[in-house]
Specification:
- By secondary structure, the protein is α+β, with helices and mostly antiparallel strands.
- The protein has a single domain (about 20-150), classed as Nucleic acid-binding proteins (OB fold (Dihydrolipoamide Acetyltransferase, E2P), Beta Barrel), CATH 2.40.50.140.
- About 25% of the residues lie in helices and about 30% in strands.
- The protein has helices spanning about 1-20, 35-40, 115-125; strands spanning about 25, 50-60, 70, 80-85, 100-110, 140-150.
- Strands 2-3-4-6-5 form a five-stranded mixed β-barrel.
- It starts with a helix and ends with a strand.
Amino acid sequence: MKKVLFLIILLSCFSSSTFANELTFGEPIVTSAQIEISTLLAEPSKYIDKTVTVTGVIVGVCSKRGCWVDLASDAKFEKLRIKVRDGDMVFPLTTKGRQALATGKLKEIALSLEQTQQHKALLAKRKGESFDIASVTKPMSIYQLVPIGVKILD
């Protein structure tokens, strides 16, 4: 009986201290540079290479190296990828569903027409939708935030 009681106490201490900790990566968050993700993505060219801070719920995490997280926007069906070089910051899979703040610089990844077609075809496939590759006639850009600091809240 004493062993069972000890085990229960040990597990409760372990779970409360490990799963609800605030995590901080890199430099402190710059709260004065805070902007809504929807505002950032509405006119991304205004924010390229400028320091901004965004906040959102983590809706995706890199399962291989923890090198990126996707933050849900304040607008429906919109998200922003927070991407680091492999190993610079390692985001645990357990952070999915938690609120995060990230300070960094917005970067543009300009895709060629062929890359844009492949990207849009992949997105359609993931959604189970049909896709006509010929319907894509212009290249697009993808935007990511390269962070200098990330804070994942309890």
